[in-house]
Batch of 2 targets.
Target 1
Amino acid sequence: MDSLDTLKLLATQMSFEVDGEPRLTSAPSACFSPKEREQAFTHPAQLPNGQKILLLKTLLSSTCERDCFYCPFRAGRDFRRATFKPDEFAGLFAKLSAARMAEGVFLSSGVAGGGVRTQDQLLATAEILRQKYQYRGYIHLKIMPGAEKDQVYRAMQLADRVSINLEAPNTERLAKLAPHKIFLEELLQPLKWVEEIRKTVPAHKFWNGRWPSTVTQFVAGGSDESDLELLTATNWLNKNVRLNRAYFSAFHPIGDTPFENKPATDPMREHRLYQASFLLRDYGFDLEDLPFTSIHNLPLDADPKQAWAQIYLADKPIEINKAERRELIRIPGIGLKGADAILNARSINRLRDLSSLKKLGIIAERAAPYLLFNGHRAAIQMKLL
Ligand code: SF4
């Protein structure tokens, strides 16, 4: 198998790794044949600064000695595996980057020879890219379970983003998913180290003069956990280790794994978890504000922000010309940018009706039941429109 064949195989296998980034075909290039271009497997991705790039997501190796119940790469499962050496992958990626076929890389791996050794392979790859090939673009590095603190530090020096997948919200739930992973020591501890390092080492000592962002991923429905457990963990991570984002991947059974007959999770659950996690992270909501059912899950048929507003705002609508930003962003249809646009417009003129909100890009129909314009219910305007 040559390097491009290895990349085709590993990048395809990496598509099992969900992090919210959609797919795209490769960009055109004069240096690679059409067949080679097909094999590049890049995806569009939006960086934390809003920049859009073509991201190559791949495994360094699909060999794994662990046996997580849900995972296609678990030890003993029969499928074609492949492994890159660090210099082999770095050389290939440098060519793809020079040909503008990939503008960033997300590098993960199965665990082979222990978490420390595997992390060394990932670090060596990033070091070759940064030092030998002077690659200045985006690198997202996965932290392996069991990696050491100095390896986490080195990853932070080389990467724009580091991620550690918790998979489950706590020790008890992880035992149902991944019997040989240790929640506190192997998975949560590296996230705590990232935050410790951020607190003690100035940002200018890191790649690009910034601390890398951190993300994690949960398998929603993999361990029979509730939404409350997942969002409690997410809320803790947001507040204590400055997690940039939690990803939720709806469980989907994979053949020839112990979970092959476990029912798939409804994708709507993943969607509701994202909505709720954004409310916790960006909109000032607390866990108690979320409309959990008696079994501690979010209703699948209701947007959590809308459900909250129906309980707390339907009878006490908010005066749009007086509300503070923290009140505005709790109104359905008004996002963070929308609230800022309202405050800006209000500093010039009073807002008089729903059409003035529409001009600001706000979903006026959703906001109307919870608003007053100068003491009058906006919902009545809706009936007249
Ligand atoms: S350690 Fe990672 S790659 Fe290996 S079986 Fe578990 S989830 Fe899969």
Target 2
Amino acid sequence: MENKNYTPVFDDNEMKTVEYHKSKYPAQMAAVMPLLWMIQEKYGWISTDAMKYVGDLLKLPHDHVLGVATFYSMYFKKPVGKYHLQICTNVSCMLCGGYDIFNHISRKLGIKNKEITPDGIFSIEEVECLGSCATAPMLQINNKEFHEKLTTEEADKLLENLRNSN
Ligand code: FES
């Protein structure tokens, strides 16, 4: 998807899910995270208008939604590639070669932080702790697949496998 500020719309079924999330919590504010997740699952990333949309659905200030979306690296604030690689460079990972992994992948793909390869297959992002400090360095793909104690050789294999699976 192009890097533009799309305006999201939930259909009737999705609005039922919105109501379900709203009903789960005593305060509507708590439903921000599942609603942002719904947006990301539908559109691939979360635009500024999408954050406003979630704020309007929950009757919350837009700034509050923006604050939640920007705090968590699991929410993508820009379009991402088919495989979005998030590499942790926080303390444990940094000490165990997190920057070596990040720089290696960046060089290999020819893209910098938060950029997408021209074919749209890969994007990379340097992130804070992913909760796997004891098995650093850590890389995750699309918030779903985790690779721990990663080496540059394993990173090469991983990229090759992902590319071949297209
Ligand atoms: S510091 Fe990298 S996972 Fe915690």
